[in-house]
Amino acid sequence: MFIILLSNLNFKIIQYLKIGINEMVYRSSFVVSIPENFIKKTFIEISDYTTFYEDYKKKNKELIKLKSSNFSSEVVFYENKELKELINNYVLSSNKILAKIIVDHQSPFLKSIIINKGSKDNIKIGTNVYDKSYLVGRVIEVNYKSSRVLLLSDLNSNVPVTITPKNIQAIVTGKGNSYGQIKYIKAGFSEKFTDQSKVYTSGTGAVFKSGIPIGKLIKIEDETNTKFDVEFYSDFSQLKYVFAEVDLKKNDINSDDDLTIGKNENPTQLKIKILEDELKIIEKSNFKLKEKNGNLKNEIYILNNKILNQQKEISSQKEAVNQTNIDKSELEFLRLNLIYGHKCKKSFMNSKGFKVGTQGYKKCVLNKGRKINE
Length: 374
What we know:
The chain has helices at 2-6, 12-92, 267-344, 359-366; strands at 96-106, 111-115, 128-131, 134-142, 147-151, 158-164, 168-174, 179-183, 198-201, 213-221, 226-232, 241-245. By secondary structure, the chain is an alpha+beta fold. The protein has 2 domains: 21-94 and 259-374; 97-247, Thrombin, subunit H (Beta Barrel). The chain has a 6-stranded antiparallel β-barrel with strand order 1-2-5-4-3-12. It has a 6-stranded antiparallel barrel with strand order 6-7-8-11-10-9. Helix 2 (12-92) runs antiparallel to helix 3 and helix 3 crosses helix 4.
């Protein structure tokens, strides 16, 4: 109040004092408001960052779920494709029925499989079993809805074969692995074997039909003798479906097939028609799966773009946080400058001070007015 009253008088001292007080009040209000604004801004940024991070984790979980769903759809698609190829082969070979492997016995000595077809489906002991057009074994045990198939690689398997191109007769026995062994050939005939020799069933003994491809010949030489093995065309460890060759007759169709057969209707044609209908259903399912996969890929693409944008936002927010830390350092310098600036400023009374704006001046202020030897 005293200064306000004296301000009406034109004393220079009073005017300078009034200016100094105003400058101090203005600077103090500015400095006091900075921490409040900084805390408010920092709180808002942290809240935004937390919300953004939670949204990012949620989108990432959705992306993982979509990728898993897409992978499952691809597995179903390839299984349908495999079944379609098998059914096509089945339609072309009306005397073969498609069977699924339900048990696979893998042991050093026993090489057999269990299929889901039995006497109900006209399977008999001795029925030939194929992998597409390649022979894989024959049925040795029959149940009502299942059968056991002895593979060619089993130690108990013996198949009469013909080796081309010289049509040499021999026996192929199983070795318990992925190969068979040529036995019971006359001396001198083995010299006619070449790298191009192929092995087919000969039909001798009426156990197997003649001309069924089995594998190709492999020559194994050591210091004492020469042996010949057969590399089977089929990989028995990868079998999922096989074909069993049966004799189809008019009365072979079971009553539980829910089919009404007239006197002039052919059961084979009816089965082919059923399989064609199944093919249409599978093709329709494949089309729907492809469409669904396309939609999933589009969603994944959109989510990837969102994640990329969110990562860019995180990067920009990190830059903003770094800039905030720099502003905090500048704020600290301004606060110390108001208190210790007169001690560091070079003037007539302080010849050892520093020029305002120099690095030495800044170090002096940050050191609270204490001189620093440079």
